[in-house]
Design goal:
Structural class: alpha/beta
Strand content: 15-25%
Helix content: 40-55%
CATH topology of the largest domain: Rossmann fold
Number of helices: 10
Largest sheet: 5 strands, parallel
CATH architecture of the largest domain: 3-Layer(aba) Sandwich
Distance between the termini: 61 Å
Shape: elongated
Oligomer: single chain
CATH superfamily of the largest domain: Response regulator
Number of strands: 14
Order of helices and strands: EHEHEHEHEHHEEEHEHEEHEEEH
CATH class of the largest domain: Alpha Beta
């Protein structure tokens, strides 16, 4: 046995399951040493005697539940990683928890290869367990309290606020923050992005202000978070439209320069930020023009490298009776391209371009 070999502890009150897993995972004995116990109490005793790198535990067990074991591991052995396995999960929780490095969640029944993959991934990662909402979703911790039928208090700290969620035999019975109480306090806590948590076991709630089921509470909380996200997106869209209107206002003098047909503001990949066709020319298509300009700027870049000079900042080309002028916005991946007739006053156009570029920078 290698001295530095990792040690994995499986905890489940179903003896048939632990026996099966020990047999199925025995072929990985060259990668890790496997131990199995059938209760949370035995797991704690084993960890007090031997260092363990990874614990895989069921949620619902007598005496010491999987969540209580997880809390003790967090307090005593912060570098030990934990995988929670349960038959009472949901696909959403599983998908979310499986994306996190130090805390994983696997739903029974599972394929042995799935568990083997999780074990090897966990043992190969350097990051240990952290009691932080940033590491896994607060909804995961709440569900584990409920599924484990615990009586406890979950304290959550977020910036300058503190909240408590009280559980009685797995039911959420009370919630409070500095300003709110009951369901409103619960929904407020669930809207927090990140924070620190502490689970206090066998703590009774001082009040009972919530009688709604925990599944309904979580569903309503998620809906409120989604609605808030929609409002944020709507506000961002309004702000984007405001910026575009401001850009158009600053580019009006360029568009009104006699002989100008089309203005396109775009990045080096040709993606349009905005465009302004003149009243006389509405036939040009911004996306198609952007694609061509992307190819054109790419070839200009290759030429610049061959010439061993600095990147182009201003381009002017004539195609028959049409002229193209492109000017890069300083310190931005944005180009201002103008198409016009050869009759355009190019000196005046250059002047208007320089003035307009300075004015649109704050809106990009």
């Amino acid at each position: 046995m290698a001295l530095l070999q990792k040690r994995v502890l499986i905890v489940d009150d179903e003896e048939d399951l632990t026996w099966t897993l020990s047999k199925k995972l025995s072929k990985d004995s060259d990668k890790f040493q496997l131990l199995t116990v059938n209760s949370g109490v035995e797991a704690i005793e084993a960890m007090n005697q031997l260092p363990v790198d990874l614990v895989i535990t069921d949620v619902r067990m007598p005496e010491v539940s999987g969540l209580e074991l997880l809390v003790q591991i967090k307090d005593r052995y912060p570098q030990t990683k934990v995988i929670i396995m349960t038959a009472y999960g949901s696909d959403d929780v599983k998908n979310e928890a499986n994306q996190r490095g130090c805390f994983r969640y696997v739903e029974k029944p599972f394929e042995i290869n799935e568990l083997r993959k999780l074990i090897l991934e966990a043992l190969s990662e350097d990051k240990g367990f952290k009691g932080s909402v940033a590491d896994f979703h607060l909804s995961d911790i709440i569900q584990l309290n409920c599924l484990g039928r615990l009586t406890s208090a979950l304290e959550v700290k977020h910036e300058h606020e503190t909240g408590q969620i009280y559980f009685d035999n797995g039911n959420i019975v009370h919630c409070e923050t500095d300003r709110l109480s009951g369901e409103n306090a619960f929904y407020h806590i669930m809207s927090w992005q990140g924070g620190e948590f502490t689970v206090k076991r066998n703590v009774k709630s001082p009040h009972e202000t919530i009688d709604k089921g925990w599944q309904s509470l979580l569903l309503e909380a998620m809906q409120q978070v989604d609605e808030h996200s929609d409002k944020v997106l709507e506000q961002k869209e309004k702000e984007k439209r405001r910026r575009i209107r401001s850009i158009h206002l600053q580019l009006e003098p360029v568009l009104k320069t006699e002989g100008t047909d089309f203005i396109l503001l775009h990045n080096s990949a040709g993606f349009p930020v905005t465009f302004m066709p003149s009243d006389e020319n509405g036939k040009l298509e911004a996306t198609e023009l952007g694609n061509h300009l992307s190819t054109f700027l790419g070839e200009v870049g290759k030429l610049q490298k061959n010439l061993q000079t600095t990147p182009a900042q201003f381009l002017e080309c004539q195609f028959g009776n049409m002229i193209l002028v492109s000017s890069k916005v300083p310190d931005k991946d944005v180009w201002l391209t103008i198409l016009g007739k050869t009759s355009v006053n190019i000196g005046l156009l250059r002047l208007e371009i320089r003035k307009s570029i300075k004015k649109i920078v704050p809106f990009l």
